[in-house]
Amino acid sequence: MPDLQQFRMTIDGRAAGSETFTVLDPATEQPWAEVPAATQSEVDAAFAAADAAFAGWAADDDARRAALRRAAEKVGVHLDELAGLLVREQGKPYADALGEAQGTVGWIQWFAEVEVPKSEVVTPGEVLQVRFPLGVVAGITPWNYPLIQSAWKFAPALRAGNTVVLKPSPYTPVATLRLGELLAEVLPPGVLNVVSGGDAVGVAMTTHPTTAMVSFTGSTAAGKSVAAAVAPDLKRVTLELGGNDPAILLDDVDVDAIAEPLFWGAFTNNGQVCGVAKRVYVPAALHDRVADALARVAESVAVGAGSEDGVRLGPINNRPQYERVNGLLEDAVAAGATVRSGGKQVGEAGYFLTPTILTDVAAGAAIVEEEQFGPVLPLVAYDDLDAVVAEVNASKFGLGGSVWSADANRALGVGRRLRVGTVYINGHAINHGPHVPFGGARWSGIGVENGLAGLEEYTQRQIIYGNGADL
Ligand code: NAD
């Protein structure tokens, strides 16, 4: 086996880890890093450290702001290093990885600087609302955006006065472990602990008696397990889960103008984004033109290892996901779907699949009904817009949806009818930054991340009746 890079967990401000597992590079399928597989006693130690750090951390908001500013600065001087690790473990192109590392800084900065109201008057002179932190937060993240997803959790949780135990996905633990080491240099010990391991470590975190809240991002199936795991203790929980976002094209769209933004609204990060378009509803009269236009964009995109110059799409992150996406594609084709572009492996090794546009997909096909989370996009022709809206609203998924039209206000009229967490007009998976709340309806989640609303998820609201006291 080649020399593996070694990474450690951060527990109570110190390096930790006894047992290990290896991390594969999805572009080569070769192991390149060795990381800790947290044992139960290490998980216990992380929660004990977070618990011990809580009272001091919760006591001083100015100190928290200052510490988060130092954290943003620290990440900012390690952007290239963190981006390189992301490319290696996640597969994404370097430019995208750098963007993710920069976004991580931006998120930490925003939560450091945001003005958090100390209290709100409910009845003048009589009733006041305040908020207090919950305690130790368990943050659990997926493998598509490991670094920024971690910041979505620890930055608001810490600013609100909680302490954190964070666990990245076993497919992409490395950049987050390195982040833990870097932040241990600027945060008090125990405030942010980073542990790594498989799903069982996640279970140990959600059921841990010290955990006050679980902030979970991942699949809907795992999210339901988390909801069940926190129920006996009524732990607080936010769940950011799967999506199956529709992009609905109206009959007046300018096909050539929308092809490029629609393509990237679906294929960003190789389609491995909760909130990208995962099915496109096209007026029957425009169907072939839209399919051709999307296929042209797809064929112009360079696919390869994220470390290669000019590559826009890397490999799928891991073998189970690669097999799942290929399986959905094969099932659709066996049932009569047409591959308009892509559908091909690239090179000898690695989980590559060229961006695939599918048409003539059978009604009820899994590729339309379920979340594919990969570079295969089905087009569904429609005649009846009301039926499309009804179908979207009947879906168990409700993360987001977009409507595309030459008349933005006409699109908005349709968009307002969608029962989803985010509506986009003439775009998809747009993200204006940390101040915008994000969350899903139905099986796409509970609660929101980002913005003040996201920070408030990490607090308990308290109403105080003063009865003559100075409020
Ligand atoms: P996953 O659910 O398999 O794993 C996510 C994390 O949860 C990992 O760290 C994993 O180890 C842990 N985990 C798994 N089972 C657990 C359990 N029972 N208890 C506690 N922890 C557990 O998801 P994934 O495959 O890593 O990520 C892809 C999924 O994440 C997709 O469905 C995607 O839509 C979703 N996602 C959602 C959002 C959002 O904001 N809504 C963002 C990104 C990804």
UniProtKB/TrEMBL annotation:
**Aldehyde dehydrogenase domain segment(s):** 17-463
Where are the bilayer-spanning segments? none
Keyword tags: Oxidoreductase
Question: Pfam families in the record, alphabetically?
Answer: Aldedh
Specify whether Plastid is a keyword of the entry. Answer: no
Please give the CDD domains that the UniProt record associates with this protein. Answer: ALDH_AldA-AAD23400
- Please list the residues that make up the active site: 240
Q: Which InterPro entries match?
A: Ald_DH/histidinol_DH, Ald_DH_C, Ald_DH_CS_GLU, Ald_DH_N, Aldehyde_DH_dom, LUC3-like
Q: Which PANTHER family match?
A: ALDEHYDE DEHYDROGENASE-RELATED (PTHR11699)
User: What family does the entry list?
Assistant: Belongs to the aldehyde dehydrogenase family.
According to UniProt, the name of this protein is: Aldehyde dehydrogenase family protein
